[in-house]
Design brief:
Blueprint (H helix, E strand, L loop, with lengths): L12 H14 L15 H4 L4 H4 L9 H8 L14
Length: 84
Amino acid sequence: MKIAVSGKGGVGKTTLTALLAQVYSDKGLEVFAVDADPSPCLAGALGIPSELQENLSPISEMDELILERTGAKPGTTGGFFTIN
């Protein structure tokens, strides 16, 4: 199962995402939570200690990963790219 949460700012996306991740994890499901926001807050909402958060890199800054997974060169516009 894949779930994507998006919408305008300030509507509770991070809170909802953290809640869903915790509920599914508590049910024994494997959860991979990704915060694609340039100002990520999901780690804090999940209770990850701040000293560990300092070692995290925003996925939006992982240019090589973006190119590898989507085929889209970061910084370019137009065209098609792979989602899955």
